[in-house]
Amino acid sequence: MRDGYRFEFGAFDKPDEPKVQALKPLEEAAEVFVAWQDCDDMRYSPIMTARRVYRESLIDECMDVVQAVVSLLDAEGFTQEDVDAAIERCNERNRERGRL
User: What is the C-alpha separation between 46 and 33, in angstroms, rounded?
Assistant: First the structure.
């Protein structure tokens, strides 16, 4: 198993309206899929600079998702303790499913 990534993300100083805040991770996730499709199309390209650009776009879109989720958690008042407990539950579900 790979070690987990460690992120240091702050929430937005000015959260959006609740419904907008809740929809933002979904919007950003759709952008991740589009970036992944572009990156996948370039996977075997002999042009290394093009591949790097698409990979950078993909990771940037992924970080936008993380930022949107962190901001949603903060706007809803979740604490680090809540997040840690949720991560452990998620890891346990994935262990039970044989993913970890």
Answer: 23
DSSP 8-state class, residue 13 = S
Mean pLDDT to the nearest integer, 87-92: 96
pTM, to two decimals: 0.85
20, 36 Cβ separation under 8 angstroms: no
End-to-end CA distance of the chain: 7
Measured at the CA of 37, the angle between CA 95 and CA 23, to 5 degrees, comes to 70
The residue among 31, 58, 63 whose CA lies nearest residue 42 is 58
Q: pLDDT of 14-47, one tens digit each? A: 888 899 999 999 999 999 999 999 999 888 888 8
| Cβ contact 11:71 at 8 Å | yes
Domain boundaries, the chain: 18-96
